[in-house]
Amino acid sequence: MLFPDTDIDHRVKIAMRFIEANGDRQLSLNEIAQSINVSPWHLCRLFKIATGTSVNQYLLNLRMQRAKDLLETTCLRVKEVMNQVGIRDESHFARTFKKLFGVSPSQHRALHRAQLSAISATTDPARNSLEAAISA
């Protein structure tokens, strides 16, 4: 969950769990509202009061965080990541990712891998001495 559990209406918590469990497919506001037996308008109102954000923004943020995690932990192509998180429009995905994280999905993956390599090189003395011996 992107928000702490404290003081959130139980219906909103249920809606958040529903979104998290089904965020990889197309979700309608009506479907989410039905999951907690309220109207779409009432869901929007409850959600905004409880979280300070809209249902759609919550879903988009959740998808983008999942995409970021997949880019960091898998070798899936960007298009495959996009499909796994339930986004079908490639330009929308790239634009939204860059807006949220400051870099494109491909750049994020490259930067993350470079950071991991740098950390690995500085924390593995045996590897460092082996690489030094090979390059000598």
Tag the structure with descriptive keywords.
single chain; 136 residues; Arc Repressor Mutant, subunit A
Structural class: mainly alpha
Q: What pattern of helices and strands is seen along the backbone?
A: HHHHHHHH
CATH fold-level label: Arc Repressor Mutant, subunit A
Poorly predicted runs of 5 or more residues: none
What is the name of the CATH superfamily?
A: Homeodomain-like
Beta-strand residue percentage: under 5%
- Assembly state (oligomeric): single chain
How many domains make up the coordinates? Answer: 1
The percent of residues in helical segments reads: over 70%
Count of extended strands: 0
**Cα-to-Cα separation, first versus last residue:** 51 Å
Structural description of this entry:
There is one protein chain. The protein has one domain (10-135): Arc Repressor Mutant, subunit A, CATH 1.10.10.60. 74% of the residues lie in helices and 0% in strands. The chain is built from eight helices and no strands. The protein has helices at 10-22, 29-35, 40-51, 55-73, 78-84, 90-101, 105-123, 125-135.
